[in-house]
Amino acid sequence: MRAAGTGPAKRWAAPGCEKAGRWQPHILSGVPRCVVVAARAGWTRAAPVVTWALRPRAHRRRGRIHHLAETARYCMPRLAPSRAAGASSKGGKPHAIRIIGGDWKRTPLPVLDLDGLRPTPDRVRETLFNWLGQRLDGQHCLDLFAGSGALGFEAASRGAARVLMVERHARAAGQLRANQQRLDARMIEIAEADGLRLAASLAPGSFDVVFLDPPFDADLLGKALAVAVPLVRADGYLYVEAGEALEPTAHEPLAGWEVVRQGKAGAVHFHLLQRENKE
User: Fold this and answer.
1) DSSP state for residue 102 in the 8-state scheme
2) pLDDT band at 263 (very low <50, low <70, confident <90, very high)
3) Using CA atoms, how far apart are residues 258 and 223, in angstroms rounded to an integer?
4) Residue range 80-95: mean pLDDT, rounded
5) Helix, strand or coil for residue 225?
6) H or E segment and range at residue 64
7) Which of 3.90.1860.10, 3.40.50.150, 3.50.50.60, 3.40.50.850 would CATH assign to domain 92-275?
8) 121 phi/psi in degrees, rounded to 5
9) Does the structure show a pLDDT above 80 at 42?
10) pTM value?
11) b (16+ CB within 10 A) / e for 181-209
12) Average pLDDT over residues 62-81
């Protein structure tokens, strides 16, 4: 088969890779299994890649076909890495998280890529809300270090009657408000404030679930526990993410509490705690 606009096929020769940057490879979709893409005589700017239908006995030429395809792959320019492949963006540019379950299941939400902003991974959120029973209908939740809002939006999606999200970073708080408006999430309140100071002003026993995910490198866990624990109702839950496994006996505010579930994902240790005496 010849590329359009070319003369009779001549003996194939590898094209000069130094000129490969000018070529845009033609991509086929939905082609039969017997069709491959290979470099062959007739490489031009208009038709740099030729499709070659393999015959049933073409396995005898497998070595040649492999050589042609490998040459074509080698000469094609590389694509820039994407965030999906693990590349990071700089300068506070947005990427996205997605809601795992509930009314807004699979909804993507933009998140700013800021230093220290560490959205709770999908797998961790799915595990956490399995522990909590999937639905939080009628419950009141506090996300004290909201950041991306992954936990707070997930709770609202699963029926929480009130979700208070606290974030001191102005740009991150602005993105939370934008996502709230996008979802028309009236049950969510967003406070741009210092989490420790605001928590100290809230009434004790105000929340069924408190999400606690302070920055790992800020040494805030002890202070956060001191102000968050009194806010949990007698039969409520405290969720904590930390850079190491949490030992309740090592933290005075957790006297009388127990870790009912815990897990680890990468460098993140996550825990669900409840009072030993829930009455």
Assistant:
1) S
2) very high
3) 19
4) 38
5) helix
6) helix 62-75
7) 3.40.50.150
8) -60, 155
9) no
10) 0.67
11) eebebebbebbbeebbebbeebeeebbbb
12) 39
